Amino acid sequence: HGSLLIAEKDGKYGFVDADLKPQGDFVYDDIDTWSVADHYLVEKGGKQQLLNADLKNATSGSFDSIQKLAPPETLMGSHPAAYLVTDNGTARVLDRQFRPIDLMGYRPIVLTDFGATYPTARVLPNGNTLVWATDAQGKVGAVDSAGHVLVPFAYEDFAECADASGDSAYVLLRDAKGWFFVSVADIQGTTTNPECDAKGHDYETVTHP
Question: To 5 degrees, how large is the angle CA 63–CA 40–CA 101?
Fold first, then answer.
């Protein structure tokens, strides 16, 4: 990855150059490489940072988790949102320059699974990023990175449903009547009322496997 190599010493990770000369101290608990402009995801003391090619902190802070939002292949390098970061239960969406994107006051939802966090955001074909979030009253809806509300904030909960490829092709939304399916393909850049697309409220309860 670039001109640096990842090495381990006394149970800690660090970097060496092509001549195996250390580049800084071996202080990290883990290091991963991302194919995004020669950045390194490092973890130290339970916090994560993104280091640039000069091993400087690109995110101007440390976070509980940093998730890369994978765009459609045709949008690589041009989509506005690139990362979702979480810290102390609060999530923010960052652009490719690691600057926060204004979501008009809505709070992104972050899900956890066996202690790991994962984002509830996806890059849409139009280049904007859909983010599942809550409003000030705790209602669930979706907003994009351009500040448009794509799903009204009128729901109690939601759950993503992966298809055979691992992509979440559907979401389940819950209102006062119960849960119903909504196709993600129907949520594209303009406000939609998912109830109009629902084929009835099919379930009273939903549990993740």
Answer: 50
